[in-house]
Specification:
The chain is mainly alpha-helical. It contains 13 helices and no strands.
């Protein structure tokens, strides 16, 4: 019995030692958590304040190395946060007068964070940064950016974030080669985004992006593709005008958006009798969210 009591006491002592160890581990974890929070705040301050500073430096200083140093501060802090206010600093940086190489550096940081960001405000800031950098991108870089935009779109249900991402896609569409544009259209991701748009502004932005990609000499059925987009319920309003103006931009003989949809449909029926104007549109594959589904039989 004595041995058992001693053993029990030993076990109890062991538990006490474990408790002390747990206390030390907890204190260490608390210190690490505090340090992590402090580091995150530091990154937020850098991103929030350095963005405008980079714009000022790039716009006013003749010493390019000073501007690069300010940009480096932003880029070093960028991977460690998805705070929307902090990310706005980077968007402001990219929107500044950066050189092509500097804009590419900033874009790389943006895309790295965009692939894991879920906060709608953060995504809007990141989308703004992509739009600002789009003019400096090569076709390969634009394709990389568009892939990141579409990935981010599938990860959020926020309408405002979707609008920002749609506008980013629109700015990238014109940078792709004909072959890249055809691949993007064939994949159908933009059509899905368009078909499941939540607001008129979003559907108009996706319509512009798709129309830009379709506007290629190698597209054999440009008019038919525009007609199919016009059939979507979300095409009403702003998107209809976008698509009709895109049609006229490629085929000057087409009526303008001001002529109205009925006039354009009559012209299409007379000029392209082989195009089906009456059948319902095919339901585009919905975005990968449980609450979305095509109607039964669509």
């Amino acid at each position: 019995m004595g041995k058992k009591t001693q053993a029990a006491g030993g076990a109890s002592g062991g538990a006490g030692a474990c408790g002390q160890a747990d206390g030390r581990a907890g204190a260490t974890g608390a210190r690490r958590g505090s340090a992590g929070a402090a580091e995150n705040e530091r990154r937020k301050r850098v991103l929030g304040s350095a963005g405008p500073a980079v714009q000022a430096l790039v716009g006013k200083l003749t010493d390019a190395s000073q501007a690069q140093q300010a940009l480096d501060k932003v880029l070093q802090a960028m991977p460690g946060t998805t705070d929307p206010i902090a990310l706005k600093g980077l968007a402001q940086t990219v929107a500044g007068k950066l050189t092509g190489a500097q804009a590419q550096q900033a874009l790389d940081a943006v895309l790295q964070v965009m692939r894991r960001a879920t906060d709608p405000n953060a995504l809007k800031g990141l989308a703004l940064a992509v739009q600002a950098a789009a003019g400096e991108l090569t076709d390969a870089q634009a394709q990389q950016a568009l892939d990141a935009v579409l990935q981010a779109m599938r990860g959020t249900t926020d309408a405002n974030a979707h609008l920002g991402l749609a506008q980013a896609a629109q700015s990238l569409a014109g940078k792709l080669t004909d072959a890249q544009a055809q691949q993007v259209v064939a994949a159908g991701h933009l059509q899905s985004a368009f078909g499941w748009s939540a607001t008129p502004e979003e559907s108009a932005a996706w319509a512009k992006a798709i129309a830009t990609l379709l506007r290629r000499p190698a597209e054999p059925n440009y008019v038919g593709a525009i007609v199919e987009l016009l059939k979507y319920p979300v095409a009403g309003g702003q998107a209809t005008n976008v698509l009709l103006e895109a049609l006229r931009a490629v085929i000057p003989a087409a009526p303008s958006a001001e002529a109205g949809l009925p006039a354009n449909l009559r012209w299409i029926a007379d000029t392209y009798p082989g195009i089906d104007l009456k059948s319902a549109p095919a339901c585009p594959p919905p975005l990968p969210r449980e609450e979305l589904a095509c109607p039964s039989g669509a």
